[in-house]
Every structure is written in structure tokens, then in C-alpha cells.
Amino acid sequence: MGGSAITSPVDDGDVQSIPRPPRREQVRLIRGLLDTPERVLGEMSDSYGPIVAMGAGPLKVAVVGSPPLIRELLMQPNDRFRWDTRLSPFPFVIGKHTMIASDGPDHRRRRGAVQHAFGRRRLNRWIPMIVERTDAAIDELIANGTSPIDLYPVGRRLLIDIVLRALFGERLVEHTAAIDVRFERMQQYLSSPLVRQIPHPFPFTLRAGVRTDRGALDAVIDGAIDDSRQNTVHDDDADNGDVLDALVHRTELSDAEIRDQVKSLIGAGYDTTASSFAWMLWEATTRPDVWGRLRREADATLGPLEGRASANEATLGDLEFANRVMRESLRLHPASGVGAREVVTDVRVGRHSIPKGTLALWSPFLAGRDPDSWVDPDEFRPERFADLDAGQRALADDGWVPFGRGPRMCVGFALAQMELTLMIARMAQRLDLVPTIPQLPESAGLIVSRPVGGVVVDVAPRSSEPV
């Protein structure tokens, strides 16, 4: 059966049809998108071009893959899209007040409060803490002495430690392990195929476990909110205190809203970043020249190998190569293969019109591998971000969208980039890491793309020999 195309009226009359695969192909491709998108995105782009339409009725999707079209889509006004959709799992997993699934004035108010809490001065104060917690994780690895070891769960534990300290200060440090376990089950649910996320009341299922975990997390966070309200000393510096203090004392959010924003920040702040860190470790450790250059730069920037590292707001600017490694890894391995938004009015993208009611899936995975934006797009080359002219920089800016763009851009993007840059630099300075399998693994996951099998490496303290 042949394919067809969808169109929708636009004012100037020059609309082009959006290519559609044959119906049988659509079934297979949609199943792939609802399981592990990366496994079918490249095939769709190669066969049908930068924008592809599939489905019908209540399940119409349009996959947008080229950087210019993604930019045009993401920069449109918020009121042309809807995030609180029937397919969104976030109100169930996080709570109905989360900004991730909010629209209109509620979204603007909740996002504005969180953005204010992530001020630049507060971010800079976390730099020494990030390096100190990375050192603690490295010390534990060395003391453990077990090798080989999967560094993916190590990165997860490190990142939730960092995120909880940034959000709550020392309030919830003793609860870190329990929070990690509960969020891991919630993330397993979010990363499961969409068919497993269909609402149901049955006990002893993954969904029932998520409901229990959400209630337990709510109780812990409510206790921290009460502690902040009763015990925080106020002053005139808006950047003092942790993120929770800022949300409690410097916004008009309700306790229920604060609770759901905090859960959103925990989940987005460590699970997606842990996946990104895993892919970055794979890319860097399979290339001794990259690991060695990271080490030499860290030696020059972070100070002596032993003792407390020297890290402040100037450190990030000096870790130029580590920053390029981070950017190149996120280009090839964004935390999620697609982002989604429901179109509530016909939306023009390039010479195409996406009809009302369509789920628009924009793909940072395809944008990062777009041959018109990147030379040898499938190759890992951190140097591609060095010494760009104006034209190259414009192409790179359009094609690098792991955190999105526009009014719904990831609010924690700056913290994630800080964490990844500092963590990879300090690990390269202090550890010899040799992958047990030299080739990159496949990816898995719907919401978060993780390497299958983790990151299994032989771990040893840094040798005296230069890399």
C-alpha cells in the first residue's frame, strides 16, 4: 500500500505535503518511536526527509528532524502548543502541578519561580561542591578496588548527591539512598514503552509502585519545606540559601507547586544527566588521546592531583577541552531522542503546515547528526567546536539542541553542563579507565536514552606514566 501526505490550509497557498510512509511502515515506525526512538529516527530521516507525518485520529504525529525546522518550531509562541496532553506521563509520575506538563499562566509562573532560583551566582557557588562530591565518588571507587565496574550507577549516585545538595543543602543528605531508589523506579516507568504506561488501577505493577514512591517522596519534600519555612534565616541577598529556600521564601508558589517543581528538578537534574555522563565516558575512554588531553588540561586547571582541587567560577572557562567533549557527546547522544508538544492550532514550519491535534516530535538526535550542519556528523570530534567562524557557529547553534530552545528550554541546562564538564575533567585527572568493550553500545529508553549494559570499565588510580 502506498504512502500519502497530509496538508492543512495556510494563508499564502504555497504549502507542501508532509511525506508519509506506507501504512504498514507507519505501524512499525510508531512502535519504534514509542520504545527507543533512536533506533528508527535515522531510517525515517533517510527515507522520508526532514519532516515526516504518521498516524491518524487521536494519534497523529509529525517528526521534525532538521535544525532549521526545529528552530522554527521551538521558537513559536507557547500558546500554539499544549503540554498537558493525554499521553503525558508527568502529571502521574511527578504531580499535576509540575511545570513540565503545565500550560499558559501556570507554566509561566512556575517556570519563572524556578528560573529565579537558578540564578548565576547560586550556580557558581555549587562549583566547589560538584568537584568535592566527584572526589568523594572517586575515593570510594579506589577504596572499593573492584574492577571492572559499571560506572553508570556510580554516575547516578554522584549526580543525585549533587542535585540534592544544590536543591536542599544538607537537609536531605541522609535520605539520598532512599530517594535514589524511589526515583530509579519512577524513571524505569518513564523509560518503559508507552503501552506499559496506560493508566490502570491494578496493584503489584510498575505503575502501582510509582504511585507509592510518589507519596513517599511527597512526605520527605513536605518535611523539607516545613524546615525551610521555620528555620531559614532571611537576608537581603536573593542568591543566599539553596533552591528550596528560594522557592519557599521568594516566590508565591503553593506548597503543592513547590513540591512538584522540586520533584521535577530532581528527576530532570540527575537521571538525564547520568545518561549523558555515561555516553560521555564511553566516548572519552575509548579514545586514549581524548582522555589524555582531558587529564593534562585538568592538571593545569584544577591544581595538584592530591588534596582539595581548586575550583571556582573561572574554572569552567579554563576547562575548554572538557567543555568541547561535553558538547560533542551531547550532540551525538542527547538525553532524549525526541521532545514532544501537541499542536493546538495549525502551525507553519518551513513550507509545511502541521495540523491542529498533531503531536509534534522534534529530534535533537537528528539535529545533532544533520549532514548539512556538521562535517562527518557521525564522528566524535570535540575540536569541531573550536575556532568557529560566524557561519559555522550559526550552523552549530542551530544543530545543537540537547536542552531544547525557546520558552520551554530545559531550565537546568546550565547546571547539567557544569556537572558534566567538571566531573569528566576530575575523573580524567585521577583515574585510569579502560573500557572492557571498545565499541559503543546500543541505546535504550523512551524518555531517557541510556547505553545498554551501562559503562563497564577497568578502574585504577592514575598511574605515574603519562597518558
Could you explain how this protein is built, in words?
The chain has 467 residues and is α+β, with helices and mostly antiparallel strands. It has 18 helices and 14 strands. It has helices spanning 23-33, 38-48, 67-74, 90-93, 104-117, 120-125, 127-144, 151-168, 176-191, 206-231, 243-249, 255-285, 288-302, 313-318, 320-332, 364-367, 390-399, 413-430; strands at residues 5-6, 18-19, 51-56, 59-64, 81-82, 149-150, 339-343, 347-349, 352-354, 359-362, 431-435, 443-444, 450-451, 456-461. Strand 12 (443-444) and strand 13 form a beta hairpin. Helix 5 packs across helix 11, helix 12 runs parallel beside helix 18 (413-430) and helix 13 packs across helix 18 (413-430).
Give a brief outline of the structure.
The protein has 18 helices and 14 strands.
Task: Please give the structural blueprint.
Layout: E1 5-6, E2 18-19, H1 23-33, H2 38-48, E3 51-56, E4 59-64, H3 67-74, E5 81-82, H4 90-93, H5 104-117, H6 120-125, H7 127-144, E6 149-150, H8 151-168, H9 176-191, H10 206-231, H11 243-249, H12 255-285, H13 288-302, H14 313-318, H15 320-332, E7 339-343, E8 347-349, E9 352-354, E10 359-362, H16 364-367, H17 390-399, H18 413-430, E11 431-435, E12 443-444, E13 450-451, E14 456-461
Parallel strand pairs: 4-10
Antiparallel strand pairs: 1-2, 3-4, 5-7, 6-14, 7-10, 8-9, 11-14, 12-13
